[in-house]
Amino acid sequence: MRLLFLLLLLLFCLSQTVSGYEKRKKNKECEDMGGACKHQKTHGCSILPAECRSRNKHCCRV
Predict the structure, then answer these.
(1) Is 51 exposed, middle or buried (0-12, 13-18, 19+ CB in 10 A)?
(2) Which DSSP category does 34 fall into?
(3) CB under 8 Å to 39, separation ≥6 — which residues?
(4) Is the Cα torsion angle 34, 40, 42, 47 positive or negative in sign?
(5) Between the CA atoms of 23, 26, 30 and 33, what dihedral angle is there, to the nearest 10 degrees?
(6) Which pLDDT score is estimated for 13?
(7) pLDDT-derived band of residue 1, with 50, 70 and 90 as boundaries?
């Protein structure tokens, strides 16, 4: 029973690590293009084609 619990805990931790890596990867694309993830209501910036973590933000070069 303990072994099963530890296995489930390990799987949960691995899934969190993988999802965290993918989120950082999205922001990394924007930073590599010379931009930053900003809210959609930001004015006066050029929108770049990279993705951000939140759908309420876009990659913006100020």
Answers:
(1) middle
(2) T
(3) 56, 57
(4) positive
(5) 130
(6) 77
(7) confident
Backbone angles phi, psi at 59, to 5 degrees: -80, 120
Domain residue spans of the chain: 2-61
pLDDT on residue 33:
84
Contact 19/1 with Cβ under 8 angstroms?
no
pTM for this model (two decimals): 0.50
What's at 23, amino acid-wise? K
Q: Residue 46: name the closest of 27, 58, 62 by CA.
A: 62
13-60: pLDDT as tens digits: 777 765 555 555 667 888 888 888 888 776 778 888 888 877 788 888
What is the C-alpha radius of gyration for the chain, rounded to an integer number of angstroms? 17
